[in-house]
Request: fold
Amino acid sequence: MPRPEGAVALVTGASKGIGAAIARALAADGWHVAVNYRSDEAGANATVSAIEDAGGRAVALHGDIANGAVDGLFTQAEEALGGPVLALVNNAGVRADNLAIQIDDADWDNVLNTNLS
Reply:
């Protein structure tokens, strides 16, 4: 998906796996990429480095989308990369490893808040 001039893509959960691959692919298409992570700062920095090594622009942004961090991430991304966020890839997701009936309320809330919010 080619990038409009000056546009930024924000990819949540981009410190590894599918999110990191999406971030790299967007950068290869010319997007400036905000790489969001919740806990894997080293992974996010590795994704940013891979993008920059390939000639792209990226920034790692910490924030837990389950706790409403997305609004702040838009502002941080725009300030760091100098353009409007025109693409959002909600890649972040978690799971509770148990039978549904055995998942406690806190784990279930985390799954819903991360995956559906």
Observations:
- The beta strands are 8-11, 32-37, 58-62, 85-89.
- The chain has four helices and four strands.
- The domain at 8-92 is CATH 3.40.50.720 (Rossmann fold).
